[in-house]
Amino acid sequence: MRRIFVGDFKIGEEEKRAVNEVLDSGRISEGAKVREFEKTFAEYVGTEYAVAVSSGTAALMAGMAAIIHHEGINVKHGTKVITTPLTYIATSNALVTTGFDPVYVDVDPETFLITPQSIKEHLERVDDIDRYSFILPVHLMGYPCDMDEINKIAERYGLVTFEDSAQAHGTVYKGKKTGSLSLLSIFSFYIAHNIQAGEMGIVVTNDAKIARLIKKIKAHGRMCDCPICQRSQGKCPRLKNYKGEEDFDPRFAHELIGYNFKAMEFQAALAITQMKKADWIAERRRENVKYLNEGLKGFSDVLQLPKFMDTVSYLAYPIVIKDPQRFSRKKLRQELEERGIETRPLFGCIPTQQPAYSHLKKEYEGKLPNADYLGKNGFYIGCHQYLEEEDLAYIVRTFKEVIDKAAG
Ligand SMILES: Cc1ncc(COP(=O)(O)O)c(C=O)c1O
After folding, report:
1. Is 93 near ligand 1, meaning CB less than 6 Å away?
2. Ligand 1 center to 25 CA (angstroms)
3. Confidence of residue 243 (pLDDT cuts 50, 70, 90)
4. For the residues 264-279, what does the mean pLDDT come to?
5. Is the pLDDT of residue 324 over 90?
6. DSSP assignment of 202-249, as one string?
7. How would residue 225 be classed by pLDDT, with cut points 50, 70 and 90?
8. Lower CB density within 10 Å: C or N end of the chain?
9. Whose C-alpha lies nearest to ligand 1, atom 10?
10. For the CA atoms of 111, 313, 81, 119, what is the dihedral angle to 10 degrees?
11. Residue 147's pLDDT band (boundaries 50, 70, 90)?
């Protein structure tokens, strides 16, 4: 049976060579490859700085810790953060585990994104605005949030914006890449994403202080923040500047409480190979979305197909069931899976549908109708760069077979 995966990763000659180069170099922990990848990625997104970490979740947590420690930014531990209820759970988990209080506002039914309108309406209603510190929009499925409007609202209320761009490598919003539209942003290179390294994440920013703080936080807050350690050449700026103990080692002197979020050379080496294909990957995915939209448009009475935008780098092909009484997501996913087409639910509405957040269920019941609906009735299939025309034709044929069967 033909298999249509949600995502795919091909290990070709280039990928093998990249990993072997790391092995031959004798250094597998963070070093020159990670530095090269950071430079490449910052150029790609269009930011001054990029700091690689072990995962997208780690990038969120390190980014949040950095803005708490940044004296020039008014973000305090324990404050409220406006974010989306419809996302992979990492966004909310990072907030909660870093000591923030997520506040969810509803999403747009077609793009799945939090809207300036819902953020604005929420902020106009609250009587504790001084307890809010930042807005964390997520560019879900590759769709870009309306960052100009979100930034304007943030500015009006004295808040910071922090994009979760984990699913949107290469998406362009008003001529700029997502990830370059706020104070700081993160990406994930998890295997299911458009640029893949197995696991790894990155924080991008134009703020030198944030970049420096993240370098420290990802290594347990140690003093070192040089791009490459120069101790072996007898040059260590931290040693020179240190005014305290005579006998101290900056690698083991910690000025902040942090984490071990360092990346590995293998991950960076693989990600560099994928960056060379980044534009091709985004383009292929767009072409596949276009093909599937054309092939499936006859089912638009029962299925909401993804909005096509030629500036979006699609994570996957999201579909929403229009009339769940007539045609359930469970049944459709089951029929597709039986025919070799992998599916995934559209993450679920965090405060009302995720068991880990059941303590918030009562508070949000009925308040997030779009996220609730999409969380229950949305799902996605693959539109990745390795799908061939026969795979796409198979998807269209299979939907026809399954929907005809359900109708008949
Ligand atoms: C929107 C979003 N944010 C954050 C993450 C976390 O990334 P990672 O899995 O690399 O920790 C993901 C991962 O899928 C994601 O989709």
Report:
1. no
2. 30
3. low
4. 98
5. yes
6. EEEES-HHHHHHHHHHTBTTBS---SS--GGGT--HHHHH--S-SS--
7. confident
8. C
9. 56
10. -30
11. very high
Q: Kindly state the average pLDDT of the residues 65-70.
A: 98
Residue 316 Cβ < 6 Å to ligand 1: no
Short-list 85, 150, 164, 87, CA closest to 120: 150
**Does position 128 have pLDDT exceeding 90, yes or no?**
yes
pTM, whole model, 2 decimals? 0.97
pLDDT tens-digit map of 81-116 = 999 999 999 999 999 999 999 999 999 999 999 999
Among 188, 199, 203, residue to substitute to test ligand 1 (most atoms within 8 Å of Cβ): 188
Q: CA–CA separation, 210 vs 207, rounded Å?
A: 5
Nearest alpha carbon to residue 382 among 2, 9, 1, 7: 7
Which uninterrupted H or E stretch holds 363? Answer: helix 361-364
**261 Cα: distance to centroid of ligand 1 (angstroms):** 15
Distance 9 CA to ligand 1 centre (A): 17
Neighbours of 143 (CB within 10 A): 26
Q: What b/e readout covers 280-306, taking b as 16+ CB neighbours within 10 angstroms?
A: ebbebbbebbebbeebbeebeebbbbb
Report the nearest-CA residue for atom 7 of ligand 1: 56
Contact 112, 141 (CB under 8 A): yes
**Residue 344: pLDDT over 70:** yes
Domains and CATH numbers, the chain: 13-275 (3.40.640.10), 278-407 (3.90.1150.10)
Reading across the β-sheet that carries 378-381, which strands appear in turn? Answer: 303-304, 317-321, 378-381, 344-345
In the chain, what percentage of residues exceed pLDDT 90? 90
What atom in ligand 1 is closest to the CA of residue 57? 11
| Residue 164, ligand 1, Cβ within 6 A | yes
Q: Specify the DSSP element, H or E, that contains 398.
A: helix 389-407
In contact, 217 and 199? CB cutoff 8 Å = no
